[in-house]
Design brief:
The chain is an alpha/beta fold and 430 residues long. The chain contains 17 helices and 18 strands.
Length: 430
């Protein structure tokens, strides 16, 4: 992104290398495995493929814990997809990637050709690049099947210029900026054309480039860099319009305007001893909102996200509707339970209660699930399936309500169940 000086850039580059500790080798392959599993289910899936640089990868400074997983705009976009049905994400964000590098990479994907890491871009700091270059046939297939392709790219194109911006005259700065803008447009147009050759009709959303440094850090230089960011937005709009076609949308996520004036809270460039140009969690959420509103016209947050504590049951979203019932979910042994009637109403299934056997039988889509009070097994089409915590009776007012383990039931009925630990929300889609 725009507006870096030597101290900031050095910190940013060194911290990029730390990502190797927390993103597993071939992050795209891990997601691809999930996608394949959903595909085999025979259900319609909204497929997102994310391409680009470290912003796509979801990098933040200080991510050194191997148990920490990036939670960037792409992961949030996947959550938004779950509100609308079965969704899957493959993320090919490459650390340090430039528009020229993405042009080379998408060119190999389009041509089905073998490419080396150096062939993509010399000196890439991403420790996963050797795995990424081996995935070009897989990525081509994923792009062909994708419903949405997202791209963040361009910040690394201008980083070297902004290392020197304080020393350059206005005329020299403008000359060099114009050259980089011209290269940006040429490369990004080629990237879009390469993707279009593989996936002719998939919606593509390209982000513009935000300026990350707050005015307090830049002084009079702030206006110069904001003007430069505006030119990048114009360039993104222009190149997208040149490729946009009826039935094959290329949209621009105008992220830059959302960062303007609030850079200090949306980037790590200053604060808590950090100097880095990557977004904060609030910054990544801001980016995700722009993408989601372009795709779905909204960005949703579950009610529980604003009030959740360890003792509060998570939010349940069934077919895009957040469950709201007088019979509140019960959290027991880390599992969420719902009243039988609420489950039937939420998923549109039929069911009955047998007092003699203390069991509930639920039928949906050719599957029959029998759940018995106190049993460590449920029956799915007659076969026993182990569950962690059995169903139980809970007194609500003067009535005994049958509470069933939601995850076990949803899995037994063949639903797609996804859980966001960040939102503390389960998304269930038939």
């Amino acid at each position: 992104m725009l507006g870096n000086w030597k101290k900031i850039w050095a910190a940013g580059i060194s911290s990029l290398l730390l990502l190797s500790a927390l993103i597993s080798v071939g992050a795209g392959t891990a997601n691809a495995a999930d996608t394949t599993a959903i595909q085999d289910s025979g259900q319609d899936v909204f497929r997102i493929v994310a391409l680009g640089d470290s912003i796509t990868a979801g990098y933040e400074p200080g991510m050194t814990d191997v148990n920490t997983k990036p939670y960037g705009y792409a992961e949030r976009l996947l959550e938004q997809g779950w509100y609308h049905g079965r969704s899957a994400l493959t993320n090919y964000g490459i650390l340090g990637l430039t528009t020229a590098g993405l042009r080379n990479y998408t060119g190999a994907i389009k041509d089905g050709s073998v490419i080396t890491a150096e062939g993509v871009q010399a000196g890439l700091p991403d420790p996963r690049i050797e795995q990424f270059v081996k995935l070009t046939p897989q990525i081509a297939a994923e792009l062909k099947e994708a419903d949405l392709i997202t791209i963040t790219i361009g910040g690394n194109d201008v980083s070297s210029l902004f290392l020197q911006f304080k020393e350059l005259t206005d005329a020299d700065f403008q000359t060099q900026l114009d050259q980089r803008l011209a290269d940006y447009q040429t490369n990004v147009k080629a990237v879009l054309e390469n993707i279009r050759a593989v996936s002719p009709q998939t919606t593509i959303i390209l982000a513009d480039q935000y300026q990350p440094a707050p005015k307090v850090a830049l002084g009079q230089m702030y206006n110069r860099l904001m003007t430069a960011a505006g030119k990048f937005t114009e360039a993104a709009d222009s190149v997208a319009a040149s490729v946009n076609q009826e039935g094959a949308k290329v949209l621009v996520a105008h992220v830059a305007e959302k960062f303007a004036g609030v850079e200090g809270s949306l980037t790590h460039i200053i604060g808590a001893g950090q100097t880095d140009f990557h977004p904060t969690q609030l910054g990544y959420e801001t980016i995700a909102k722009v993408f989601a509103e372009l795709q779905w016209g909204e960005y949703r947050v579950p009610t529980v996200a604003t009030m959740a504590t360890a003792s509060v049951p998570m939010s349940i979203v069934v077919k895009g509707v957040e469950l709201n019932t007088p019979n509140k979910p019960i959290l027991k042994n880390g599992q969420n339970f719902l009243a039988l009637k609420d489950i039937l109403n939420a998923v549109g299934a039929s069911g009955k209660w047998d007092n003699k056997t203390s069991s509930a039988t639920i039928v949906y889509g050719g599957r029959t699930v029998v759940i018995t009070i106190g049993s460590k097994f449920i029956k799915v089409n007659g076969e026993n399936v182990a569950i962690d915590t059995p169903a139980f009776l809970q007194k609500v007012g003067k009535e005994d309500k049958t509470y069933l383990p939601l995850a076990a039931l949803a899995t037994g009925l063949g639903f797609d169940v996804n859980y966001s630990s960040k939102l503390r929300t389960a998304f269930i889609n038939p």
